[in-house]
Amino acid sequence: MGKLDNKVILVTGAARGIGKGCVSKILSEGAKVIATDINKELLKESESEWSEKAHKSIRTNILDISSEEDWKRVMSDIEEKEGSINGLVNNAGIVNLKTIEEMSLEEFRETQRINLTGTFIGTKLSVEMMRDKNGAKGSIVNISSISGQTGTLNCTAYSASKGGVRMLTKAVALEIGAKREFIRINSVHPGVIMTPMQIERAGDDKELWEDVENQYL
Questions:
Q1: 140 membership: H or E segment, kind and range
Q2: Quick check: is 128 in a domain?
Q3: What is the CATH number of the domain that holds 29?
Q4: Domain assignment of residue 24, yes or no
Q5: Contact indicator for 149, 194 with CB cutoff of 8 Å
Q6: Is 149 a member of any domain?
Q7: How far apart are the first and last CA of the chain?
Q8: Buried-exposed string 72-110: b where 16+ CB fall within 10 A, e elsewhere
Q9: Which one of 40, 164, 178, 181 is separated from 124 by 20 to 30 angstroms, measured CA to CA?
Q10: Left, alpha or beta for 195 (phi > 0: left; psi -120 to 50: alpha)?
Q11: Which domain holds residue 162?
Q12: Which position among 78, 97, 158, 187 bears the catalytic label?
């Protein structure tokens, strides 16, 4: 018996990194996973790996988390095929490794649109579905970051977005608690993890990695 037997869990940003690891772990605990990502090619590659072990328990969907229309399409598809979700891992996001002086307003807004607004939309629609279909029961995990607690050097926009995810989670938890509903909502705050996205963004910038090591490691 797995801890998540007969549960349906939606994971965003599932094609690689933390999201991919979450999907693998959730599958090992017996849940059915709806794995979503904006990158169709990477998602297809990851799906083939998951399907070798749990082909009946995994299916995928393309999702741009910053689009409310996309979220509604995916949630409608889940309602039609699975009925509802028992859990959501709001993982998808981007990193922008620039100082405030280097960053444009559009770059700052893009980071908030994806990391914070995308988390807001997913949380909102999941709470609504859990309330309507599950008797107000379920679990939502929003992936924040240590940057959302302490700030991170050369990560102005990212730190702001992840701090927003942390406070969004706390505020929604208070709202749900005030209604005495059984939807758990938590944020988690990983430190620096060498995911493919991190490596792509920083590349071989040795000075940047040294700054990171000095700050956290």
A1: strand 137-143
A2: yes
A3: 3.40.50.720
A4: yes
A5: no
A6: yes
A7: 38
A8: eebbeebeeeeebbbbbbbbbbbbbbbeeeebeeeebeb
A9: 40
A10: beta
A11: 8-216
A12: 158
Statement: the pTM of the whole predicted model exceeds 0.85:
yes
**SS3 (DSSP) at 158:** helix
Q: Find residue 185's DSSP bridge partners.
A: 140
- The pLDDT value recorded for residue 204 is 55
Q: Count structural domains, the chain.
A: 1
Dump pLDDT digits (tens) for 129-160: 999 999 999 999 999 999 999 998 889 999 99
Q: Residue holding tokens 């690689």?
A: 16
Q: Which residue has the tokens 């169709």?
A: 40
87/109 Cα distance (integer angstroms): 28
3 in a domain, yes or no?
no
User: For the chain, which residues score pLDDT lower than 50?
Assistant: 216-217
Q: Tell me which H or E stretch contains 9.
A: strand 8-11
Give the tokens for residue 125.
């629609």
Sheet-wide strand order for 58-62: 58-62, 32-37, 8-11, 87-90, 137-143, 182-188
Name the DSSP letter for residue 56.
Answer: G
In the annotation, is 216 catalytic? Answer: no
In terms of Cα–Cα distance, which of 91, 104, 100 is closest to 165? 91
